[in-house]
């Protein structure tokens, strides 16, 4: 049975004891079905479940014919439909086709009765989704099935969200997966139903008065219909699209904002659908559609509808441009003029949508409209569409009405620049952007220089686009950098912000860099040197940064430059070489330029789409011709020899971190070099390698010679793909020598194996696997741990090339590969696992294993064996008889990997033998063996079929429970996770019955409680959430085997700490409408007619705090003027001054106080909890170290522990005695304050009792004496509590 179905049913079985009827009924039904299967010895297959459920459903309906079927929560019929909906997706399609009539006769009549009952209705919909997707074209025409589909269509407008969503998903999935044909046969019927429903909505209209029932019903129907239409639209026939479009165009007239927004959004999607039927093409109706949209513009205050309206206009114009470019260009100004006024909106989202719509309109510029605009510019006319668009956009930059829209207007200018790359006279002539937009760019640059301009980032983005379209040669001619000393002295504003924009692809030739920036950087170098010599490091850093920015932009000139042959002169090449050698900070920029110089020209010359796609968009937008690129490649090929020599020297001089970039450049130049030059480079590198190997063998070998050997091998690795077959063979034999593979240097060994792997992978060497493996076996004694990963990779390549008749070589590799799974390096372990799996695949392909040629094989076992995965598993299992626990543990790990990889190829009998054999190792006393065995058991429970594991439950459970109390190596947690997985697959009863001892049963009960507790937490969290959220995906380790073995689902799902500690609050943030205000400047008058953009700010309008404003709140020393911050003593003095007033207030509010009524009678305060809590709070405030407690406390910071200020600290000048002295000072001050307060209270109490004694006579004397006695003791108790509260935390801290 399919594992996915078994996992689904396993979640239902435990609910037999549930208190919820809708959970208990399906579980009871499932247990009854499976009991019947057990009695009849029927295998639990999806087909068996399907047949049994149909029979049960038929019996239930037969019994209910006399009355209406019951669809309550605990009834049988909903449970049958529920399980049938779960089972039928796993049933083979031929079985469903053969039982179609039975399914229809049983379920189709239920639709009317199921409508009031949502849960069984959703089960019915799931059932029909699987049925409809399983049928062929002829069966879909069945009358009863069409009627059922008609009922499903009407449910797509059901008022219940879950039912409506399920029906819409069914229709979408069925139409998206038609039987072998272009379109589903039900697509026409769905289109007809959509048209009829739209017509009904538009004809009836939507009421405009809120609170009416008709309004909610009509608007909800329209909203549900549009939500259904959006995903289904691509599946409908093209003949229905014009009618649907007409209906959608009428929906905005109904006055409902959400319906209008949805209609426009769907129209935008509809216009972008590619239509295959030219007869029924909506492109012919685009002018009519655009006119209808333009005729009903939304209100400027309606932000949601405006955004959708602008979006559909942009999409419509793009579709119109693709259908008829010239006609669309004539419509362009009308649409632009209609959309542009919404740029003044106060809503930022509307302005963004309008900018996107205008960007779509800029894509509709044609060569003819651009050429006419250029011609009009020369004649100083402005009647063309493009000239009017540019004039309107440029004027808006100075307009106060569009001040808040400056970022969006800058985006529009960027769009204009990007789509005006047209060159009227071909390559070499100025672009249309240069002819038409240069004044706009200059105005933006001037705004960027203004001190108060707020949108500098947006302006930089637009200027960056201008740099990519126009090029530095054009842009810097109009906007000079003004960075020289003479420019600064003349008062010209510098434009250093243009330098970072040089790094993007642009059309300027490389000769401009050579003629303009090379002298510029030389002047900057001189200024830097002068500043350093005169002791001005800050100024020197400024010049250094400018130089770095200039050279970082060099690679922008190298994307298919047209004048490469003239610009890359010997003088410039020599300069680049000197920078590579002597300027480490400029080296990355020069290397990147050299690499792109080759790669871009090769990609353009090849015309290959994949290579061109790797280039930046700017390089693809206006490239040079293929002929020019081919000429550049030919010229670069003549420079390869000298540049490879330079790059080799640079490679050996830089550190390990910088060799990667140099290596990329070497590969690029080697890819275009001639075979003769490659051969010369090969001989130079081999001679250098031999010399250093000889030096390394000498007794006085230095680390320098070994490092040179390693770098030489790195260069050979880089160049190996370009060597000829003869050179590759010689290199392979050279690296097989023991001088390299047994070198004392780890780096030399690693690179030796890498060279061998690269050469074998290239296929230029005839590999004799047997001979090479024998030679590799001889060098194992000198193998270092660092080279094992590369050795495993080489062995993996060699194993794949072993002929089927030489599979006797595989057993000789197995021990090394198995032990490699225990390597400390993760990469080495992964390489060893790959080697083990590769050997398994090689054995699974078939062949012959000649046992007599295997080393150490007994004569009795000699002979030939047929290669298979089971034979290979037997070979691996030989390691279980190893002499060391390390070997046994590694063998178990290797077997686990093979079981996971080849679980479907291994026979059930072999699975059982492996499982029973490895289960014995759970009784081992060695923890390393047990750890690997637990991993295998977890894997087996996840991988093996349930039928194979069930007979061994009585062995698995006691063996695992033995380690359930062992905390070392996390055995307890691992065993618990395994039991959680067991409970999922077999159920609670089966696992619990296998535990014999009481202590073992307690472990299982604890696991069950943990699972139930976690389930309740999830249920509570789901109830507390306002919305149903999708469960977050669990982080995967990147390898399926690692996920199953170490990061299983159970470890995250059913642990105690699975629930997050807290959820983020969903408090909505205040919406920023992008409002703008005028910035007030006290020094300068404001000109509202020009340059308003620099006077606008979107910052908060609240008054900002001025520097030094808070300082005015502090006292200042009259002599020095320094701030005087009050200490604790000042606060205590202030507190002492108000003792009488505080004592009076406390006499009225505390538990010991009293009040007088209107007639003068005394009423004592009640000793309530609230008063005691208030008194305690007041005492805490007084005794706290920080007395200023009126401020608001931070919620994030936890309250300090009691006595934290007395905790002993170790510092340079402090000690415990210092803490005691400070504590004593505090105690004294607080006792003085408290005694004064208590004395005053005691005086007032005595005075009160004198007055009372006069009234009550002799009895009053007794009361007075008692009160005075308790009052005195109250004072001494407060003194003692004060001393104790101050000293006890300190003593506890010690």
UniProtKB/TrEMBL annotation:
Residue intervals passing through the bilayer: 1274-1291
UniProt keyword Oxidoreductase, yes or no: no
Record's compositionally biased regions (Basic and acidic residues): 1063-1080, 1107-1121
Stretches for region Disordered: 1014-1201
Entry keyword Membrane: yes
Feature: compositional bias, Acidic residues: 1050-1059, 1127-1138, 1176-1185
Keywords of this entry: Membrane, Nucleus, Transmembrane, Transmembrane helix
Subcellular location per the Swiss-Prot or TrEMBL entry: Nucleus
RRP12 HEAT domain: residues covered: 345-653
Family matches, as Pfam families: HEAT_RRP12_N, RRP12_HEAT
Boundaries of every RRP12 N-terminal HEAT domain copy: 16-272
Family: Belongs to the RRP12 family.
Identification of the protein by name: Ribosomal RNA-processing protein 12-like conserved domain-containing protein
Organism: Somion occarium
Taxonomy of the source species: Eukaryota, Fungi, Dikarya, Basidiomycota, Agaricomycotina
């Amino acid at each position: 049975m399919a594992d996915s179905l078994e996992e689904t049913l396993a979640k239902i079985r435990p609910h037999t004891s549930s208190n919820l009827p809708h959970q208990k009924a399906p579980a009871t039904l499932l247990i009854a079905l499976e009991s019947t299967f057990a009695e009849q010895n029927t295998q639990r297959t999806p087909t068996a479940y399907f047949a049994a459920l149909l029979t049960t459903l038929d019996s239930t309906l037969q019994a209910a014919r006399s009355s209406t079927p019951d669809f309550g929560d605990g009834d049988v019929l909903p449970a049958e439909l529920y399980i049938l909906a779960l089972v039928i997706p796993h049933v083979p399609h031929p079985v469903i086709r053969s039982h179609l009539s039975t399914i229809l006769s049983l379920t189709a009549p239920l639709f009317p009765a199921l409508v009031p009952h949502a849960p069984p209705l959703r089960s019915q919909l799931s059932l029909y989704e699987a049925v409809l997707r399983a049928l062929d074209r002829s069966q879909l025409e069945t009358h009863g099935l069409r009627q059922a589909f008609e009922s499903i269509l009407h449910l797509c407008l059901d008022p219940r969200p879950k039912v409506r969503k399920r029906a819409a998903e069914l229709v979408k999935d069925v139409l998206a997966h038609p039987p072998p044909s272009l379109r589903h046969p039900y697509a026409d019927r769905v289109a007809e139903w959509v048209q009829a429903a739209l017509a009904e909505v538009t004809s009836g209209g939507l009421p405009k008065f809120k609170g009416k029932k008709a309004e909610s019903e009509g608007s909800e129907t329209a909203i549900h219909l549009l939500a259904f239409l959006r995903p289904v639209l691509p599946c409908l026939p093209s003949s229905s699209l014009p009618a649907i479009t007409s209906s959608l165009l009428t929906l905005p007239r109904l006055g409902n904002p959400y319906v209008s927004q949805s209609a426009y959004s769907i129209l935008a999607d509809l216009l972008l659908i590619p239509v295959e039927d030219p007869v029924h093409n909506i492109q012919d109706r685009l002018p009519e559609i655009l006119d209808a949209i333009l005729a009903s513009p939304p209100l400027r205050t309606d932000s949601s509808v405006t955004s959708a309206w602008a979006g559909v206009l942009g999409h419509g114009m793009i579709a119109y441009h693709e259908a008829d470019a010239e006609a669309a260009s004539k419509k362009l100004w009308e649409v632009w003029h209609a959309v542009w006024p919404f740029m003044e909106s106060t809503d930022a989202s509307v302005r963004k949508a309008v900018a996107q719509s205008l960007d779509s309109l800029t894509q509709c510029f044609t060569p003819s409209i651009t050429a006419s605009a250029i011609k009009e510019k020369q004649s100083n006319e402005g009647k063309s569409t493009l000239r009017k668009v540019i004039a309107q956009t440029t004027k808006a930059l100075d307009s106060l009405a569009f001040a808040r829209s400056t970022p969006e207007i800058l985006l529009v200018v960027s769009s204009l620049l990007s789509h005006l790359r047209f060159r009227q006279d071909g390559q070499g002539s100025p672009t249309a952007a240069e002819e038409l937009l240069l004044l706009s760019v200059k105005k933006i640059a001037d705004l960027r220089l203004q001190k108060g301009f707020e949108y500098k980032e947006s302006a930089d983005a637009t200027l960056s686009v201008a740099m990519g379209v126009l090029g530095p040669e054009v842009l810097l001619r109009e906007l000079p950098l003004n960075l020289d000393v003479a420019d600064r002295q003349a008062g010209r504003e510098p434009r250093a912000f243009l330098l970072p924009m040089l790094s993007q692809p642009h059309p300027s030739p490389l000769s401009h860099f050579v003629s303009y920036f090379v002298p510029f950087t030389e002047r900057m170098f001189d200024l830097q040197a002068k500043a350093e010599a005169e002791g001005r490091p800050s100024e020197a850093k400024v010049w250094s940064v400018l130089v770095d920015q200039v050279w970082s932009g060099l690679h922008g000139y190298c994307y298919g430059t047209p004048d490469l042959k003239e610009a890359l002169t010997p003088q410039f090449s020599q300069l680049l070489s000197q920078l590579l050698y002597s300027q480490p900070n400029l080296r990355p920029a020069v290397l990147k330029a050299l690499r792109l110089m080759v790669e871009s020209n090769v990609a353009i010359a090849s015309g290959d789409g994949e290579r061109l796609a790797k280039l930046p968009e700017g390089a693809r937008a206006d490239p040079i011709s293929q002929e020019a690129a081919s000429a550049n490649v030919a010229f670069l090929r003549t420079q390869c020899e000298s540049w490879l020599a330079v790059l080799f020297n640079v490679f050996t001089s830089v550190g390990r971190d910088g060799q990667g970039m140099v290596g990329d450049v070497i590969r690029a130049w080697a890819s275009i070099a001639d075979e003769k030059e490659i051969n010369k480079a090969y001989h130079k590198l081999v001679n250098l390698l031999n010399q250093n190997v000889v030096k390394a063998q000498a007794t006085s070998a230095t680390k320098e010679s070994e490092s040179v050997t390693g770098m030489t091998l790195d260069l050979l690795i880089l160049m190996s793909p370009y060597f000829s077959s003869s050179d590759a063979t010689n290199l392979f034999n050279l690296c097989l020598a023991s001088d390299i593979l047994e070198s004392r240097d780890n780096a030399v060994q690693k690179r030796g194996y890498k060279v061998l792997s690269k050469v074998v992978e290239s296929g230029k060497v005839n590999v004799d696997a047997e001979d090479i493996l024998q030679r590799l076996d001889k060098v194992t004694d000198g193998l270092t741990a660092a080279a094992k990963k590369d050795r495993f990779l080489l062995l993996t390549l060699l194993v794949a090339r072993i002929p089927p008749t030489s599979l006797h070589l595989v057993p000789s590799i197995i021990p090394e590969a198995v032990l490699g799974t225990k390597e400390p390096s993760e990469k080495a372990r992964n390489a060893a696992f790959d080697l083990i799996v590769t050997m398994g695949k090689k054995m699974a392909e078939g062949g012959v294993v000649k046992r007599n040629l295997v080393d150490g094989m007994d004569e009795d076992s000699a002979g030939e064996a047929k290669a298979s995965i089971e034979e290979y598993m037997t070979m691996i299992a030989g390691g279980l008889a190893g002499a060391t626990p390390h070997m046994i543990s590694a063998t178990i790990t290797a077997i686990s990997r093979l079981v996971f990889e080849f679980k479907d190829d291994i026979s059930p009998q072999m699975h059982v033998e492996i499982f029973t054999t490895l289960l014995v190792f759970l009784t081992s006393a060695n923890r390393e063996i047990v750890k690997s065995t637990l991993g295998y058991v977890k894997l087996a429970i996840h991988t093996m079929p349930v039928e194979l594991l069930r007979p061994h439950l009585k062995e698995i459970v006691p063996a695992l429970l033995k380690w359930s109390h062992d905390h070392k190596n996390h055995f307890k947690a691992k065993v618990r996770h395994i039991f959680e997985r067991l409970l999922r697959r077999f159920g609670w009863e089966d696992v619990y019955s296998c535990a014999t001892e009481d202590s073992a049963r307690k472990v299982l009960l604890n696991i069950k409680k943990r699972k139930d507790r976690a389930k309740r937490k999830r249920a509570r969290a789901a109830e507390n959430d306002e919305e149903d959220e999708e469960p977050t995906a669990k982080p995967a380790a990147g390898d399926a085997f690692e996920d199953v073995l170490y990061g299983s689902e159970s470890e995250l799902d059913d642990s105690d700490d699975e629930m997050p500690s807290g959820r983020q609050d969903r408090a909505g943030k205040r919406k920023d409408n992008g409002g703008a205000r005028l910035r007030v400047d006290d020094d300068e008058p404001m000109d509202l007619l020009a340059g308003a953009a620099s006077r606008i700010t979107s910052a908060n309008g609240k008054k900002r705090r001025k520097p030094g404003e808070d300082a005015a709140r502090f006292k200042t020393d009259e002599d020095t003027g320094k701030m005087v911050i009050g200490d604790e003593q000042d606060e205590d003095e202030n507190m002492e001054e108000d003792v009488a007033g505080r004592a009076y207030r406390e006499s009225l509010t505390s538990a010991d106080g009293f009040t007088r009524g209107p007639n003068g009678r005394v009423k004592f305060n009640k000793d309530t909890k609230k008063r005691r809590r208030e008194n305690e709070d007041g005492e805490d405030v007084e005794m706290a170290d920080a007395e200023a407690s009126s401020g608001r406390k931070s919620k994030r910071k936890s309250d300090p522990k009691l006595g934290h200020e007395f905790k002993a600290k170790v510092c340079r000048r402090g000690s415990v005695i210092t803490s005691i002295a400070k504590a004593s000072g505090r105690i004294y001050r607080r006792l003085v304050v408290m005694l004064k307060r208590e004395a005053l209270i005691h005086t007032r109490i005595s005075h009160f009792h004198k007055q009372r004694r006069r009234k009550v006579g002799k009895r009053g004397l007794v009361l007075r004496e008692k009160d005075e006695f308790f009052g005195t003791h109250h004072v001494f108790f407060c003194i003692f509590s004060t001393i104790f509260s101050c000293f006890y935390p300190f003593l506890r801290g010690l």
